[in-house]
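User: I'm new to structure prediction. If I give you an amino acid sequence, what do you actually give back? Let's try with this one:
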Amino acid sequence: SGVSLLIPAGAIPQGRVYEMYLTVHRKENMRPPVEDSQTLLSPVVSCGPPGALLTRPVVLSVRHCAEPSTEDWRIELKSQSAQGQWEDVVIVGEENFTTPCYIQLDSESCHILTETLTTYSLVGQSITKSAAKRLKLAIFGPVSCNSVEYNIRVYCLDDTEDALKEVIQLEKQTGGELLDEPKTLHFKGSTHNLRLSIH
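Assistant: Good question. You get back a string of structure tokens that encode the predicted 3D arrangement of the chain. For your 199 residues, that looks like this:
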């Protein structure tokens, strides 16, 4: 799913035993609230156990779907508190020695160095009209059809492995199969609707 947790040697204090976990949340109600000018750029991911004492930072790697240009985006890491409230952690590129984590952003992944195990997600706000979010268009339908009607389903997804895997699993339950390789769409913020034409 493009999500991993690297725990370096010595990160867990000697004599302590933790049952570590990593979860990708797919439910809508787990997502952080976003304003009109913001968009979710990564899946919501939990690592734990929450509150575990660590002596070194761990590295949480998560896929994102932003065209990473720091001039075009204001990307912020958010975390969910134990009470369920979403909080701002740090803006990518503005980390310093007082921030609770450091973020390295490459073309497809975000690597978070942190000593805090909790629930995280990346939220982006476009600063310029050039800010682009990578989406995938995936078309599903039956492999063969014996009637005149042929139903297809077109999904517009975040360009992350996890989003596509979720739809493939859903489609398998109804007998749908991926009819072609998903196509990447670079979607830029505008006041216009996304319109698809099938020819």
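You can read the tokens as a compact description of the fold. Here is one thing that stands out. The two ends are 32 Å apart (CA to CA).
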